[in-house]
Amino acid sequence: MNEIPEIPRGLPGTLGQAVFRLIRERGLVGRSESDALDAEWKAVVGPELGRRSAARKIKDGILEVAVTNSAVLQELRGFLHETVLQQLQQRLPNSGIRGIRYKRVR
User: What is the pTM of this model?
Assistant: First the structure.
């Protein structure tokens, strides 16, 4: 049976704060952010490319995108790259995205 975690001493003890800490500790906040990032990615690239790729994270201004096959990789790296980058920068102005790195996954 799961136990309810104790609220650490010295920290505010409201229920909302405890729930937020629990969500953050379990990594759910990051997961929500990455899900939102991937949703924006899919909205920009469309359903076909969105099924075959996924935005993972932004590190040092570089968006990491997992791609499932070489054809999609070439399409994204080729003539779509600049357009996709510009659209992401417009849709996510506070993200700091300045480039995209594509990574082939199986």
Answer: 0.70
Query: Strands (DSSP E) along 15-69, which ranges?
Result: 53-59, 62-67
46, 75 contact by CB (below 8 A): no
Partnered with residue 58 across adjacent β-strands are: 63
Contact by Cβ (8 Å): 24, 33 = no
Place of tokens 């650490």: 8
Cα separation, 76 vs 70, in Å, equals 10
Q: In the block, which residue shows the tokens 């505010």?
A: 12
CATH number of the domain at 30-104, please? 3.30.300.180
Band of pLDDT at residue 14, cut at 50, 70 and 90: low
